[in-house]
Design goal:
It comes from Phyllobacterium zundukense. GO terms for molecular function: undecaprenyl-diphosphatase activity. One of its GO terms (cellular component) is plasma membrane. Belongs to the UppP family. It is found in: Cell membrane. By secondary structure, the chain is an all-alpha fold. It has one domain. Helices cover 76% and strands 0% of the residues. The protein has 13 helices and no strands. The longest helix has 32 residues. It starts with a helix and ends with a helix. The mean pLDDT is 90.
Length: 268
């Protein structure tokens, strides 16, 4: 295994953790970076499987909160409704993810031009939503009704198009449906746990026959890097969003998408 490849895996892992929970599309960034670096993984598994590091980052930061939810689940109706809401929001991604898995991995993941366009479109939508004078009806994830959770889950499915952003889709959808910025971002964190874990397990199962020891080593490096950078983002994102909104992330998407398009056109 070449040291350059290890360095690339380390870089991509850090990139995954830094971008997974902010509305800029971690998958889009990974696929674009891999394209320009010439980094290739069997079946595009690296880009999906290193998300386990980001999942563990949430579990680490939210451990006490998750423990409290587990303790309250048998006796507290509000907690049961919250957990049910997360599962309801997760369900559309299960159905569409299984049905469209091959198209996503073999067509959409191989379209860097599409990724750049979606980054730009998403950035414009974020700027628009961030400047709306929205009046939130829900300020706590524990108060989200099941109907709202289902709608957010349906909107999350747009993120199967790389460059859209899972967190971006869920946050924007939640805001337009009547939530405040902090609880929208927090609900996106909680919904990420089953969504990313499900994608990890299903992709690992689908590609178990083509993975090699070299793949496992690279995935391990990326996983550790994603965990470390993911912990940093999860710890500080909610406070940042509450104070400053999503404008910075919108402009970041516009810059990356535009530079990516220019580079792709020049490389033709």
């Amino acid at each position: 295994m070449e040291s350059q490849t290890i360095v690339e895996a380390l870089f991509l892992g850090l990139l995954e953790g830094l971008t997974e929970f902010i509305p800029v599309s971690s998958t889009g960034h990974l696929l674009l970076a891999g394209h320009f670096l010439g980094f290739e993984s069997n079946g595009k598994t690296f880009e999906v499987l290193i998300q386990l590091g980001a999942i563990l980052a949430i579990l680490t930061v939210y451990f006490s909160r998750l423990l409290k939810i587990a303790r309250d689940l048998p006796s507290d109706p509000k907690t049961r409704r919250f957990v049910t809401g997360i599962l309801v929001a997760f369900l559309p991604a299960v159905v569409i993810g299984i049905l469209a898995h091959d198209v996503i991995k073999t067509v959409l993941f191989e379209s860097p031009m599409l990724i750049c366009v979606m980054l730009i479109i998403g950035g414009l939508i974020l700027l628009w939503v961030d400047r709306l004078n929205l009046k939130p009806r829900y300020t706590s994830v524990m108060d989200y009704p099941l109907s709202l959770c289902l709608k957010i889950g349906l909107i999350q499915c747009f993120a199967m198009i790389p460059g859209t952003s899972r967190s971006g889709a869920t946050i924007v959808g939640a805001l337009l449906l009547g939530t405040d910025k902090r609880s929208a971002a927090e609900f996106s964190f909680f919904l990420a746990m089953p969504t990313m874990a499900g994608a990890f397990a299903y992709d690992l199962f689908k590609n178990r026959h083509i993975l090699t020891f070299n793949d496992a080593s690279l995935i391990g490096v990326g996983f550790v890097a994603a965990f470390i950078s993911g912990v940093f983002v999860v710890r500080y994102l909610l406070d940042y969003v509450s104070r400053h909104g999503f404008g910075l992330f919108a402009w970041w998407r516009l810059v990356v998408g535009t530079l990516g398009l220019v580079a792709l056109i020049l490389m033709r």
